[in-house]
Fold each of these.
Amino acid sequence: MSSLSLFLMTTDILERFYGVIPAGGVGTRLWPLSRAAAPKFLHDLTGSGSTLIRATYDRLSPLAGERIMVVTGTAHRAAVCEQLPEISDANLVLESEPKDSAAAIGLAAAILHRRDPETIMGSFAADQVVGPLEVFLEAVREAVVTAATGKIVTIGIRPTLPSTGFGYIRQGGRLGIEGAPSATDVAEFVEKPSEEVARRYVASGDYLWNAGMFVAPTSLMLQHLEANEPALYAGLCEIADAWDGPERDQVAARVWPTLPKIAIDYAVAEPAAAAGDVAMVPGTFTWDDVGDFAALGRLNPAAENSKLKVIGEGARVYSDNASGVVVSDSKRVIALIGIDDVVVVDTPDALLVTTQEHAQQVKQAVEALKASGAVDVL
Amino acid sequence: MSSLSLFLMTTDILERFYGVIPAGGVGTRLWPLSRAAAPKFLHDLTGSGSTLIRATYDRLSPLAGERIMVVTGTAHRAAVCEQLPEISDANLVLESEPKDSAAAIGLAAAILHRRDPETIMGSFAADQVVGPLEVFLEAVREAVVTAATGKIVTIGIRPTLPSTGFGYIRQGGRLGIEGAPSATDVAEFVEKPSEEVARRYVASGDYLWNAGMFVAPTSLMLQHLEANEPALYAGLCEIADAWDGPERDQVAARVWPTLPKIAIDYAVAEPAAAAGDVAMVPGTFTWDDVGDFAALGRLNPAAENSKLKVIGEGARVYSDNASGVVVSDSKRVIALIGIDDVVVVDTPDALLVTTQEHAQQVKQAVEALKASGAVDVL
């Protein structure tokens, strides 16, 4: 194929692309900054000036224009519309209660499929940090071209450390797709490993992080959803059939609460991989899911002559021989003296003090606070 | 002397006793709990239910009744009157600006001396923690009896650790005063020692902490003040002469700002000791000047099954594997995870995070905040 005709073909394919942004998770490990009423994706966690959801939208729009759908909780409607004033009512899917990723992404697939059965959707979580833009877009372009050959394509992330917090994807052979030179088969998805296993994975060069980024024809997504989760599929079809008509709210209110909760990985990705329908495009961009406050420390620079990362507009922090991360979501003066690797998160009604090493345990603290009835700050 | 006549003599002497409570220091090392507008003596730092100044007053009243004078800043008038509703206007001496302890205690001495030249005054700082009451009162009784023989009497504290934060008093020979069997001479006052020297002091058994508690005839206090600080003495006399008349405010406003700042130790105690006019009564009660947050940790019990001391009414603290001190002066939820020997002080407009080891350095932080213009939280 000539490069001109490849360009034309690719352009046609890219016009089928539709971005989907599931904005569901609270980000419990980022409590008390992130919480039910103000989840992670509504915060600017990198000092970029944009909230994570705004940055996610802006990252997709060079490819998708305004063909971007957001799936979020009804409670976040106003905040999401404030962040994304250009989003149309048709592209804002509201969940009355959280039903995990298969329902959220599956409903987007079913709605988009009814609008245009040729759609290639790309699902990118609202609360991740990615850069640089061009490297990301090139990976998505390859993923779309690969998806057009009839594949569910996951973008795997080249690991930078032996993380035990992510699942991994073992890379198979190259697919040799024109316009998608780095696309490969997926040999298998593997669950979060032990540290020893993670080290082996990273050393081998064959394993990439599963960042939960999927690009696929809506038809293929739905086909696997039907095969693996027929009840979920049937419910989503019922809602999607009514979505663009006058019965939307009534049908959604009746059916959504009955849907089973299951992750998209189990409902679609893993069985589809076993059936040989999943490909991978490696992402060489930097990627962080900002899973805890230690991540926040990694993502933010320290001020000059300081070992302390300070996050928050108008923060008033005095430090003497202190290192770690301070998140200031209040206007209070914060003084840190002679303390290392500390994490201090200061909000108007709740304060967290821990260490970078214990950042993952914030989740248990939130569960304990919930159990103790301190729901006003969760 | 028969024990009856000793009792009668002692009773006569004790009727000359007048308590004086200098309530001056801000307690900078207890920032942000203690600050200019709410100094240390206005806080309940031991969970007793009483502020330190109220507890100091209650400790003296079994001996002094309402013969207790308070010297404090004009800014604290309302707060002190709220704490001590029984105090008369005659017994509340207000300083328009801080002039150190010689001026504060010297003015009390000069006023009381004019009211009754037989007065034996006892000066006890408003921000110390002392117990048990009976042991304290017995030491004060002995000090008053000793003072009546023509001595300035300091109550030395039997040291419980080789502190480098206090001055020490070297004990001389027993004085053999009837009714004051434990009174001794003072060999010398010594400045805050190095840790090695402090260890030697404590091991020797001859050195006691200088807690700044003085009991003395007002006449003798004023005599030494006149000899050592004639300008200060003259100014204090001018104010005291006008104090109980219509010119009080006018004279005080004119003279007080001109007075030299000097500590009572240098202006009276040390030169008087050199002249052989100072005696000591050892105090075997427990004593703490609550000098920093590490002291606050020592003075408060941890909750059951916890290594964390929590101070503050209605504190909402969640801790997981944390030890140290939390002072909650706000209604916020505070979560501490996996952090040891931490000090967290949470107030509505300022937060301190440090360690018990670095508790003394809070003073420098306050100075730095002052220099940076953050005076709203000081």
Note: DSSP finds twelve helices and 15 strands in chain B.
Amino acid sequence: MPTRVSGRTPDQLRPVSIQRQFTRHAEGSVLVSFGDTRVLCTASVEERGPAWKKEGGWVTAEYGMLPRATHTRGRREAAQGKQSGRTQEIQRLIGRSLRACVNLEALGNYTITLDCDVLQADGGTRTAAITGAYVALADAVNAMLKKGQIKKNPLFGQVAAVSVGISGGQPVLDLDYAEDSGCECDMNVVMNEAGQFIEVQGTAEGHAFRREELDALLDLATAGILQLIELQREALKA
Amino acid sequence: MPTRVSGRTPDQLRPVSIQRQFTRHAEGSVLVSFGDTRVLCTASVEERGPAWKKEGGWVTAEYGMLPRATHTRGRREAAQGKQSGRTQEIQRLIGRSLRACVNLEALGNYTITLDCDVLQADGGTRTAAITGAYVALADAVNAMLKKGQIKKNPLFGQVAAVSVGISGGQPVLDLDYAEDSGCECDMNVVMNEAGQFIEVQGTAEGHAFRREELDALLDLATAGILQLIELQREALKA
Amino acid sequence: MPTRVSGRTPDQLRPVSIQRQFTRHAEGSVLVSFGDTRVLCTASVEERGPAWKKEGGWVTAEYGMLPRATHTRGRREAAQGKQSGRTQEIQRLIGRSLRACVNLEALGNYTITLDCDVLQADGGTRTAAITGAYVALADAVNAMLKKGQIKKNPLFGQVAAVSVGISGGQPVLDLDYAEDSGCECDMNVVMNEAGQFIEVQGTAEGHAFRREELDALLDLATAGILQLIELQREALKA
Amino acid sequence: MPTRVSGRTPDQLRPVSIQRQFTRHAEGSVLVSFGDTRVLCTASVEERGPAWKKEGGWVTAEYGMLPRATHTRGRREAAQGKQSGRTQEIQRLIGRSLRACVNLEALGNYTITLDCDVLQADGGTRTAAITGAYVALADAVNAMLKKGQIKKNPLFGQVAAVSVGISGGQPVLDLDYAEDSGCECDMNVVMNEAGQFIEVQGTAEGHAFRREELDALLDLATAGILQLIELQREALKA
Amino acid sequence: MPTRVSGRTPDQLRPVSIQRQFTRHAEGSVLVSFGDTRVLCTASVEERGPAWKKEGGWVTAEYGMLPRATHTRGRREAAQGKQSGRTQEIQRLIGRSLRACVNLEALGNYTITLDCDVLQADGGTRTAAITGAYVALADAVNAMLKKGQIKKNPLFGQVAAVSVGISGGQPVLDLDYAEDSGCECDMNVVMNEAGQFIEVQGTAEGHAFRREELDALLDLATAGILQLIELQREALKA
Amino acid sequence: MPTRVSGRTPDQLRPVSIQRQFTRHAEGSVLVSFGDTRVLCTASVEERGPAWKKEGGWVTAEYGMLPRATHTRGRREAAQGKQSGRTQEIQRLIGRSLRACVNLEALGNYTITLDCDVLQADGGTRTAAITGAYVALADAVNAMLKKGQIKKNPLFGQVAAVSVGISGGQPVLDLDYAEDSGCECDMNVVMNEAGQFIEVQGTAEGHAFRREELDALLDLATAGILQLIELQREALKA
């Protein structure tokens, strides 16, 4: 099996770290790293349901990238006066993914907002964000239980995510920026702890991909996500 | 095999029509219908490349929905002062999908914009838009060849799209609005004429989906898209 | 009497068609054509009065043009982030004109929005929009009466509109795009079925116009509008 | 002939004053008053043609109202983040009206911007603005001639404007705010020094107006504007 | 003591005039001039408290500059679609400064908005605005007392402001535009009638300033403001 | 001398740390902490001068606060569509302050942007940002010298900042959030390594402050800043 520029095997994740309580004010605050990709995920609890829903709570996400998280400075979205299409797409994905493990009715009249801000980018920021945001969400829910804001845990199962792609003709797991820019096709996969799919988003970059390529990518993603699920569990125990 | 509310079998498309030259000014102008979903797709040729690229042309898309294309009136995005995250996500998907069958270098210094405006919505507007926009694009490219703006055809292959989902526990093809709102998971698939994948976007709505469900949905989509590819061919011959 | 490039006599309208129920969801939906100008006019009924008014309903309009309704593609206003001054001027005109035949008190706590979207433009889009929107409004009001939302018909009289101008030195009715671009002065006239004026908007383009020119234009407009009033009546009977 | 609340006869203008050089920096600066309506009109000369035109200059206008120019405070448009439809309609009207007396080719590569800011409003702000802006424009053009920026005077003729309407059943000239709010129909007329029409904008407020009413209003406007033309001449001589 | 280009001594204010009731509609309307700097300050009383405060009233300010108040035309902020950072900074300063002399609880459920619009600029517009706005505020409060909207005067003390700076190496009072553009450091000072500080904002332009320079500037400002306080008093007696 | 809630003496800074190379991509990247206030300051070098300046480079700053840097979640400015007045005021202050120690001509055709993003807020974010941004700027300039982009060091001197205020009746240095919210007056001071003033911004919150209070605050600030200057030096040596 040929190795990658980074020396990783095709099915190898980058070193992952999940640091809880990175900042003080948020009910959940996690700095997640997938190699050089570092995302600060905070979970904020507010006592209000969404405007368009009479009962039950809500879980939503916002995503941002610090202007110099990347190789060359990007323009600040607040100064631009709007969030890019890419930003909106990512934050909608994060929110949808996390809601897949929450019983919103059991959340009562609360909204939890997951802010995922990329401090440093090296590929896979959205999948790192989902993986870290789950831990921040779990911390926030535990804080709510402790304060008596809710009676029973609204979380069922876990959610984690990883990217996969075909790079140099071979399917690989957890692409870094160099692999991502050069890859022929790119897929983000979100799963739960039972290995079931929550989101699958695959895009052909260089050439359209065949069904057997798709199958290989899904296998890689499944194995990678089950490792991430385990790392989340350990982090939450610590 | 249980039938659907609409009387269709699980693997049956809605009646599809592809009407070329619906309006006069555009280089390509197609009214595509998937059942009651009707989208006007125009292709406009402009002599300018994209600002961020020194050589070669570009293909891009914009998407809109007339305020009363839907059951209840939606707010006009132009009056709101911005396009929603959903709109941006869809138009990025359409543009990316169509570019997958275009040799941009062979397009010279031209930009082709595909405007997909939904006149009436009944589910599957983005997949109908991609399917119709391909035909408008082909007409525009033929007009360019005829005028001598380009020497060789920059299109290779065809692109079409369809939605699939699990509704009432069974995998079904080409969901209408009623099926789409109630479905447990929903996937949009874009393929080329060789049955290869260009985009796969699946989202769990009610519950996470198992690998075998995913496989069944991909099978349905593949069969449906190959029919749409054939319908595009016939429309272009007419 | 010299004829026009189009072969029409100076006092001749273009072929006019008024197609009701063009789309399904709206309470009124009319595709109106004045020659090659085609505007989709929908009337949407919502149960809310305007914020700034304690009692009675409201009738308002929004106007848009699909990017490639015109010879060269115009930028999409939703993508630009704002409606142009021209768009706002036109939609204010349409709303004001239609309100001139509505007893707003009799409309109860309802707002009717007339969306006029130009699918294809060849001059006179605002006057075609007013003429078509009246028919959509009449259909919506009839639907409300049938559902028992209102007791008595809030419409009194009819409203239609046409453009007139001086082209090649001679006053002509219902200018198409070629005549409109080259004309020396241009006037939009809105009248009711009694031949009384609701709006008169005349602009000198090439040279200021004399009182007798103004008089000739008003005569042409009056005759033209009375024909349109008749065509509306026939369409509503069909 | 019944008199008006203000004591004026139906064909009587309010006291008009035209004060030149009201501020120091602008090439033309005029404070115009029609009774209690006071508008500061400045003309600014900039050495640049419009972006969309290869040759010749341009004359354009912007309009604003100080928040407390009116009885109750209006919101500041700069704080709102956009100009209202009304503001845009008015500034387009002012620009178009003034251009009707300018030979743009003779203006060379210059743009003259007429800023019309209402310090105090009592009806007829747009017509006062046009009347005052003409004088500011004439001053700016004279300054350009003196500096040698242009060789020949690009102005031909004069432009002035007034409102007319039907109030209490009778046609009256130059409506103040009280008359304007209560009037049945309202018309703004712009003419040149030869009594020819540049713009006619009439709107039925209470009821549609008959042709003979329209004729009476146009007669009143013509007589009023010829007086304003004379007042402009005197102001420019002073 | 060397004199300034303007002939003023270093500690000399420009001629100051405070003209009350400059416009009719506002509860307070003051045209303040500091030499060629002329600012129209209106105070508008509205019966509503601020949204974020349960009890007591509010005093706030907005600032604007007419496009041609300056040597070269500036772009109109309403047309730009936003207020510049400079504008926001100034209006926040004016509001904060005026609130320093108001007992907001005694203001009941009223909001007073101070609109400060610069008709002509020659340096020191923000300090002239604060000085004039105080007088407009006092007039508005008196009108409220007279109407019985409030029982006791919510104003305590007076507020005025002036700029100071180091120009040509010497500390000077009340800089005009020429001095301001060329100055090495620039300070805006707001004080009350007891000579106490409400705001001090000093900025080094050319070089950092020493403590003794700062002290000299504060002395100049104090003496200048006490004169302005006296001029406000006289204006309010008139 | 009474102590503060935090146990600090009135003239005592919070523990300060300056961590260089916190992220990888930026030419300078500093995480600065003043107690619990943590700001990430990056310096980005781009090869372009400012649009409005023919020669020489530019130094500018942008400021942001992560939504949950604070006790309760603030709205994300990118989602709001604009930067608040407070944000703009702060980033203008940071940019101006840093430019006070840069010879812009010696910077050639480069722009350095200082992005200051608050990860956690506990009072004094703008002064911490200035202090940290100086170190990031020094690192970026050194990188430019090493790469040969510039020949001589454009920095002269150092810049640091601190807040001071009157809290519980006594002048104190470096206020934390609790002191800041309750303080009677609040001043931000920016100085260079020679103890000269670059910016002084004082605001009375509860009551106007006397000259001797101002003097005491300036003394405290001077002593505090000289300590910060020393800490910057040590960090840059490390």
Note: The interface with chain D takes residues 23-26, 29, 36, 38, 40, 42, 44, 46, 62, 64, 66-73, 76-83, 87, 113, 115, 117, 119-120 of chain E (CB under 8 Å).
